[in-house]
Amino acid sequence: MMHCRQNAQTNEKAGVAISFDDHFINEWFALRPIFQKYNAKVTFFVTCPDSLTADEVSKLKTLQSDGHEIGFHGTIHGKSTELIMAGPENYKKIELAPGLSYMAKAGFNPTSYAHPGGNHNDQVDSVLLASGFKILRDVAISRRKIMGFQMYALAPRLMPWIYYDFDSERIVDALLIDEDSGLTEAEMKEALEKAKTDNKALMLFGHEPLYGKPKNGEYGFDVPFLEQILKEADRQKLKFYTMSELADTK
Ligand SMILES: [Zn+2]
Fold this sequence. Notes:
Elements: E1 15-22, H1 25-29, H2 32-37, E2 43-46, H3 54-65, E3 69-72, H4 80-83, H5 88-105, E4 112-114, H6 122-130, E5 135-140, E6 143-146, E7 149-153, E8 163-164, E9 171-176, H7 185-198, E10 201-206, E11 208-210, E12 220-222, H8 223-235, E13 239-240, H9 243-248
Parallel strand pairs: 1-2, 1-10, 1-13, 2-3, 4-5, 5-9, 9-10, 11-12
Antiparallel strand pairs: 6-7, 8-10
Bound molecules: zinc ion.
The site of zinc ion has 6 residues, from strand 1.
Protein backbone atom coordinates (compact mmCIF):
# COMPACT_ATOMS: atom_id res chain seq x y z
CA MET A 1 0.00 0.00 0.00
CA MET A 2 1.31 3.36 -0.96
CA HIS A 3 1.33 6.22 1.48
CA CYS A 4 1.10 9.72 0.11
CA ARG A 5 3.36 11.83 2.16
CA GLN A 6 1.94 15.24 2.93
CA ASN A 7 4.07 18.23 2.12
CA ALA A 8 5.83 19.49 5.20
CA GLN A 9 3.65 22.11 6.84
CA THR A 10 5.30 25.51 6.88
CA ASN A 11 4.07 28.69 8.44
CA GLU A 12 6.37 31.14 6.73
CA LYS A 13 3.47 33.25 5.42
CA ALA A 14 1.42 33.25 8.61
CA GLY A 15 0.49 36.74 9.66
CA VAL A 16 -2.01 39.38 10.54
CA ALA A 17 -3.46 42.23 8.46
CA ILE A 18 -4.91 45.02 10.59
CA SER A 19 -6.77 48.00 9.15
CA PHE A 20 -8.45 51.13 10.48
CA ASP A 21 -11.42 52.90 8.92
CA ASP A 22 -12.79 56.43 8.59
CA HIS A 23 -10.97 59.66 9.39
CA PHE A 24 -9.15 59.49 12.73
CA ILE A 25 -5.84 60.70 11.31
CA ASN A 26 -4.47 62.38 14.46
CA GLU A 27 -5.59 59.52 16.69
CA TRP A 28 -4.06 56.93 14.34
CA PHE A 29 -0.85 58.92 14.14
CA ALA A 30 -0.61 58.82 17.93
CA LEU A 31 -0.34 54.99 17.69
CA ARG A 32 2.96 55.29 15.82
CA PRO A 33 5.18 54.40 18.82
CA ILE A 34 3.15 51.20 19.43
CA PHE A 35 3.43 50.18 15.77
CA GLN A 36 7.18 50.86 15.87
CA LYS A 37 7.60 48.88 19.08
CA TYR A 38 6.30 45.70 17.38
CA ASN A 39 7.45 46.49 13.81
CA ALA A 40 3.79 46.41 12.82
CA LYS A 41 2.55 47.52 9.41
CA VAL A 42 -1.15 48.27 9.02
CA THR A 43 -3.60 49.87 6.57
CA PHE A 44 -5.51 53.12 7.07
CA PHE A 45 -8.72 53.37 5.04
CA VAL A 46 -9.46 57.07 4.69
CA THR A 47 -12.92 58.46 3.96
CA CYS A 48 -13.96 62.07 3.16
CA PRO A 49 -10.45 62.94 1.93
CA ASP A 50 -11.72 66.37 0.76
CA SER A 51 -11.52 67.46 4.41
CA LEU A 52 -7.88 66.39 4.93
CA THR A 53 -5.84 69.28 6.31
CA ALA A 54 -2.22 69.85 5.26
CA ASP A 55 -1.18 68.58 8.69
CA GLU A 56 -3.23 65.38 8.27
CA VAL A 57 -1.79 64.79 4.80
CA SER A 58 1.70 65.13 6.22
CA LYS A 59 0.88 62.67 9.03
CA LEU A 60 -0.50 60.13 6.53
CA LYS A 61 2.68 60.54 4.45
CA THR A 62 4.80 59.83 7.51
CA LEU A 63 2.74 56.72 8.25
CA GLN A 64 3.11 55.63 4.62
CA SER A 65 6.88 56.10 4.76
CA ASP A 66 6.90 53.94 7.91
CA GLY A 67 5.58 51.11 5.69
CA HIS A 68 1.85 51.45 6.40
CA GLU A 69 -0.65 51.53 3.56
CA ILE A 70 -3.10 54.35 2.87
CA GLY A 71 -6.27 52.84 1.40
CA PHE A 72 -9.55 54.42 0.31
CA HIS A 73 -12.90 54.29 2.14
CA GLY A 74 -15.14 56.38 -0.12
CA THR A 75 -15.71 60.06 -0.84
CA ILE A 76 -18.94 60.49 1.13
CA HIS A 77 -19.05 57.17 3.09
CA GLY A 78 -22.35 56.51 1.29
CA LYS A 79 -24.52 53.46 0.74
CA SER A 80 -23.00 51.97 -2.38
CA THR A 81 -25.94 49.62 -3.05
CA GLU A 82 -28.27 52.63 -3.23
CA LEU A 83 -25.90 54.85 -5.21
CA ILE A 84 -25.39 52.14 -7.82
CA MET A 85 -29.14 51.75 -8.40
CA ALA A 86 -28.89 54.91 -10.53
CA GLY A 87 -26.07 53.24 -12.51
CA PRO A 88 -22.35 52.56 -12.11
CA GLU A 89 -21.50 56.03 -13.46
CA ASN A 90 -23.59 57.63 -10.74
CA TYR A 91 -21.83 55.54 -8.09
CA LYS A 92 -18.40 56.41 -9.47
CA LYS A 93 -19.24 60.11 -9.83
CA ILE A 94 -20.45 60.41 -6.23
CA GLU A 95 -18.47 57.91 -4.17
CA LEU A 96 -15.24 57.18 -6.05
CA ALA A 97 -13.99 59.88 -8.45
CA PRO A 98 -13.98 63.03 -6.26
CA GLY A 99 -12.29 61.35 -3.28
CA LEU A 100 -9.71 59.61 -5.44
CA SER A 101 -8.92 62.92 -7.07
CA TYR A 102 -8.40 64.57 -3.65
CA MET A 103 -6.20 61.62 -2.65
CA ALA A 104 -4.17 61.94 -5.87
CA LYS A 105 -3.69 65.68 -5.33
CA ALA A 106 -2.44 64.91 -1.83
CA GLY A 107 0.00 62.37 -3.32
CA PHE A 108 -1.79 59.10 -2.54
CA ASN A 109 -2.71 56.38 -5.01
CA PRO A 110 -4.79 53.87 -3.02
CA THR A 111 -4.83 50.25 -4.23
CA SER A 112 -7.12 48.85 -1.54
CA TYR A 113 -10.72 49.71 -0.64
CA ALA A 114 -12.86 49.20 2.46
CA HIS A 115 -16.63 49.25 1.92
CA PRO A 116 -18.24 52.10 3.92
CA GLY A 117 -20.58 50.49 6.44
CA GLY A 118 -19.75 47.09 4.97
CA ASN A 119 -22.40 47.88 2.34
CA HIS A 120 -21.85 46.39 -1.14
CA ASN A 121 -23.07 43.93 -3.77
CA ASP A 122 -21.55 42.14 -6.78
CA GLN A 123 -22.11 45.13 -9.06
CA VAL A 124 -20.36 47.49 -6.63
CA ASP A 125 -17.46 45.03 -6.32
CA SER A 126 -17.08 44.73 -10.08
CA VAL A 127 -16.93 48.53 -10.49
CA LEU A 128 -14.29 48.77 -7.73
CA LEU A 129 -12.19 45.92 -9.14
CA ALA A 130 -12.39 47.45 -12.63
CA SER A 131 -11.27 50.77 -11.10
CA GLY A 132 -7.96 49.15 -10.20
CA PHE A 133 -8.32 48.23 -6.52
CA LYS A 134 -6.37 45.06 -5.77
CA ILE A 135 -8.44 44.08 -2.76
CA LEU A 136 -11.86 45.00 -1.32
CA ARG A 137 -12.40 44.65 2.40
CA ASP A 138 -15.76 43.95 4.03
CA VAL A 139 -16.76 43.63 7.68
CA ALA A 140 -17.11 40.52 9.84
CA ILE A 141 -18.57 40.55 13.36
CA SER A 142 -18.18 37.75 15.90
CA ARG A 143 -21.13 38.69 18.13
CA ARG A 144 -24.44 40.28 17.37
CA LYS A 145 -26.76 41.76 19.96
CA ILE A 146 -30.20 42.98 19.04
CA MET A 147 -32.16 44.99 21.65
CA GLY A 148 -29.73 43.77 24.30
CA PHE A 149 -30.17 40.07 23.44
CA GLN A 150 -27.24 38.02 22.27
CA MET A 151 -28.25 36.70 18.85
CA TYR A 152 -25.07 34.82 18.16
CA ALA A 153 -21.45 34.60 19.27
CA LEU A 154 -18.69 32.99 17.26
CA ALA A 155 -15.12 32.46 18.35
CA PRO A 156 -12.86 34.19 15.80
CA ARG A 157 -10.85 30.97 15.35
CA LEU A 158 -14.08 29.39 14.04
CA MET A 159 -14.59 32.06 11.37
CA PRO A 160 -12.58 30.82 8.36
CA TRP A 161 -13.62 33.87 6.29
CA ILE A 162 -11.47 36.22 8.40
CA TYR A 163 -8.29 34.34 7.38
CA TYR A 164 -6.53 35.10 4.11
CA ASP A 165 -5.46 31.93 2.26
CA PHE A 166 -2.94 33.62 -0.08
CA ASP A 167 -5.04 32.44 -3.00
CA SER A 168 -5.15 35.90 -4.66
CA GLU A 169 -8.72 36.41 -3.41
CA ARG A 170 -9.68 40.07 -3.91
CA ILE A 171 -12.89 40.23 -1.86
CA VAL A 172 -12.23 39.69 1.85
CA ASP A 173 -13.74 40.09 5.33
CA ALA A 174 -11.96 41.49 8.39
CA LEU A 175 -13.09 41.00 11.97
CA LEU A 176 -14.21 44.12 13.85
CA ILE A 177 -12.12 44.66 17.01
CA ASP A 178 -14.01 47.73 18.32
CA GLU A 179 -15.13 47.75 21.98
CA ASP A 180 -18.66 46.63 21.15
CA SER A 181 -17.29 43.47 19.48
CA GLY A 182 -16.87 42.03 22.99
CA LEU A 183 -13.72 40.18 21.89
CA THR A 184 -11.35 38.98 24.58
CA GLU A 185 -7.55 38.78 24.65
CA ALA A 186 -7.78 34.99 24.99
CA GLU A 187 -9.90 34.76 21.81
CA MET A 188 -7.43 36.94 19.94
CA LYS A 189 -4.51 34.80 21.09
CA GLU A 190 -6.29 31.67 19.81
CA ALA A 191 -7.16 33.41 16.55
CA LEU A 192 -3.51 34.37 16.01
CA GLU A 193 -2.37 30.83 16.89
CA LYS A 194 -4.73 29.50 14.23
CA ALA A 195 -3.20 31.85 11.64
CA LYS A 196 0.23 30.53 12.62
CA THR A 197 -0.78 26.86 12.47
CA ASP A 198 -2.70 27.20 9.19
CA ASN A 199 -0.12 29.53 7.53
CA LYS A 200 -2.78 32.17 6.87
CA ALA A 201 -3.27 35.85 7.66
CA LEU A 202 -5.85 36.90 10.22
CA MET A 203 -7.67 40.06 9.07
CA LEU A 204 -8.81 42.55 11.72
CA PHE A 205 -10.08 46.13 11.68
CA GLY A 206 -11.24 48.92 13.96
CA HIS A 207 -12.12 52.59 13.96
CA GLU A 208 -11.07 55.21 16.53
CA PRO A 209 -8.30 54.45 19.06
CA LEU A 210 -9.90 54.83 22.52
CA TYR A 211 -8.35 54.98 25.98
CA GLY A 212 -11.41 54.01 28.03
CA LYS A 213 -15.00 52.98 27.40
CA PRO A 214 -16.64 54.66 24.39
CA LYS A 215 -18.72 57.72 25.30
CA ASN A 216 -20.89 60.24 23.45
CA GLY A 217 -21.29 58.15 20.32
CA GLU A 218 -17.60 57.24 20.10
CA TYR A 219 -16.93 54.02 18.21
CA GLY A 220 -13.55 52.43 18.31
CA PHE A 221 -11.21 49.97 19.96
CA ASP A 222 -9.31 49.92 23.22
CA VAL A 223 -5.67 50.83 22.58
CA PRO A 224 -4.27 48.42 25.23
CA PHE A 225 -6.34 45.65 23.54
CA LEU A 226 -4.75 46.49 20.17
CA GLU A 227 -1.32 46.50 21.81
CA GLN A 228 -1.96 43.00 23.21
CA ILE A 229 -2.77 41.79 19.68
CA LEU A 230 0.41 43.36 18.28
CA LYS A 231 2.48 41.97 21.15
CA GLU A 232 1.09 38.46 20.71
CA ALA A 233 1.56 38.58 16.91
CA ASP A 234 5.15 39.68 17.45
CA ARG A 235 5.72 36.95 20.06
CA GLN A 236 4.39 34.30 17.66
CA LYS A 237 6.64 35.76 14.92
CA LEU A 238 3.70 36.46 12.64
CA LYS A 239 4.17 38.73 9.64
CA PHE A 240 2.35 42.05 9.47
CA TYR A 241 0.68 42.57 6.11
CA THR A 242 -0.93 45.64 4.62
CA MET A 243 -4.13 44.88 2.68
CA SER A 244 -2.55 45.28 -0.78
CA GLU A 245 0.34 43.07 0.29
CA LEU A 246 -2.14 40.25 0.96
CA ALA A 247 -3.34 40.37 -2.63
CA ASP A 248 0.27 40.58 -3.86
CA THR A 249 1.61 37.62 -1.84
CA LYS A 250 1.59 34.37 -3.80
ZN1 LIG B 1 -16.45 53.55 7.76
